[in-house]
Amino acid sequence: MAPLSQHGADTSVLRKFGINEAYQLAMYILDQYRGTILSCRYEIPSRLASAEARLEEAVKAAIVDTIMRHPMLQVGMADATSKSPSWVQLDSLDLTQHIKWNQVGEHDDLETTVQETFCAQLDDRFPDFSVTLPNWRVTIFRQGRAPSMEVMLTWNHPQFDGAGAKVFHEDFLELLNANENGEYARKGLEVNSLRLPEAPPMLPTPIEDLKKMPVDIKYLSKVFWEEIRPSALNRDKSMATWCPIRTSPYKTQFRSFSINNAALSAILTLCRQNKTTVTGLIHGVALLAFSLHLNSKAAPAFQSSTVMDHRRNLPPAPADAPWGSSDRAVANYVTQAVHKYDSSLVKRIRSKMRPSDAAGEGEGKGKALSADLISELWAVSAQSRRQIERRLEVGLRNDLVGIFKFVTDWQKTMGDMAKRKRQFSWLVTNIGVMDGKGSNSSSSISGDQDDVVSGWSISRAQFGLSAETPAAAIEFSPVSVAGRGMWVGANWADCAVDVTLGERIMGDMERWLNQLASQP
């Protein structure tokens, strides 16, 4: 990546990093994690689809409006490699460093270009910390004068979480549609230089400063014992010892597949009937797939994790917060729920499987799940949902972030974690359903003419994370757009997980989800 210029001379400290921000930054500094992406396909209004200059101006103006609504898009980091990093105020942004247009050749394959760039940017690093700028960028793909474009938001996780990226895209869509009069001038914007307000921006408050995070003595003692206990005394069979943590060479493997809207609707109906959600179902399918491809000696039991957005547990946002309500904050407000699948459950599931069920093995390649396995699948999926609900019901009591407040050196902590046994075989981070319509997004038909699209909309989304070295072996990242279907992504560290295993597990997940959707 080309060197970037300093963004602004004014670097007044706004506040210290919160807990979530600090540990994510430590992972980045130690090269245990790199980038996160939420990419959306935008349908362009007819009036702009063939007017390239006006289209680019409309996009730039809406991005500027989004930046001004969300202060975390305006700030840089100071003392990033110290024990006490801070967010600092910048006086301006060079938008050429945050917005890049890619024109895809007429004879090139747009989908291939988008996917190759997606995978490459997951492993890209942001500029050196001596360059003070917000760690996010938007890459836009356009092919000729096609009526759609891909908008890829890539960011460094300390800046905000996946739910924050979802808010970015939804607000960007809203602001595109709000500009009906085509006025693209913005206060402080001169060509590609955006002068930021002189008044310090109001940053979202870290979760630990917004809500009490009580930790019971029993829970604290348990966590402390797990930290100091010698590995030889840890006989938890559910630990992911089949996948030792390896730190280098760093490379992310990413795969994804789509589920069309009809299939997704059928799956959602089944989830409701079986008292679970898509997140719970992904856990259930993953358990079956891991049980199938790993033997009982390597993995007699499993643990997994759900990344949870706690915006629902936050107090109302300040009345003058530019982002409005707490659930619309571009910030870091996630924690996790832990799931365990004991050896008796895993043994029972394996007893109902045949070796030929494994994708790519023998004559049974691609076999469907039996009725017995489907019954086990729904039971596990419902159990996972109940565990998530219980975690949400207790709020932030005995939450992992509450324990994190005792950490004084995140780089040392994360470095030590990479030397231990891996805990989770898989993780699910589902940012949910995106509103892809926005306002003024419609079409009309006049005679024999093609549809005239009068507003912007989002037709699909894809969410992906770079490999997290000390975290789960494989991380699943589903996202859906209302009325448009779902994409399921998965990542793993190339140096830790065999590519064939990752691809077979993803193949199982795609095939079994479609099997469920096609059930009469």
User: CATH topology of the largest domain, what is it called?
Assistant: Chloramphenicol Acetyltransferase
- At the first level of CATH, the class of the largest domain is Alpha Beta
CATH architecture of the largest domain: 2-Layer Sandwich
Rg, Cα atoms, Å = 23 Å
By DSSP (H or I, 4+ residues per run), the number of helices equals 14
Q: Helical residue percent?
A: 25-40%
Number of strands: 20
InterPro entries: Alcohol_O-acetyltransferase (IPR052058), Atf2/Sli1-like (IPR010828), CAT-like_dom_sf (IPR023213)
Pfam families: AATase (PF07247)
Organism: Apiospora aurea
Protein name: Alcohol acetyltransferase
Question: How does this structure look, described?
Answer:
By secondary structure, the chain is an alpha+beta fold. The chain has 2 domains: 13-195, 2-Layer Sandwich (Chloramphenicol Acetyltransferase), CATH 3.30.559.10; 207-223 and 236-435 and 465-517, Nonribosomal peptide synthetase, condensation domain (Chloramphenicol Acetyltransferase). It contains 14 helices and 20 strands. The protein has helices spanning 19-29, 46-49, 52-69, 110-122, 162-178, 207-210, 217-228, 261-273, 278-293, 343-351, 371-393, 400-404, 410-417, 499-517; strands at residues 13-16, 36-43, 76-78, 86-88, 92-94, 99-104, 136-143, 148-155, 189-190, 193-195, 252-259, 302-309, 334-341, 426-428, 433-434, 443-444, 452-453, 457-465, 474-481, 485-493. Strands 11, 12, 13, 14, 15, 19 and 20 form a 7-stranded mixed beta sheet that branches. A hairpin with a 3-residue loop joins strand 19 and strand 20. Helix 8 packs across helix 14 (499-517), helix 9 packs across helix 11 and helix 9 (278-293) packs across helix 14 (499-517). It is globular. The chain starts with 12 loop residues before the first strand and ends with a helix. Residues 1-10, 359-365 and 441-450 have low confidence and may be disordered.
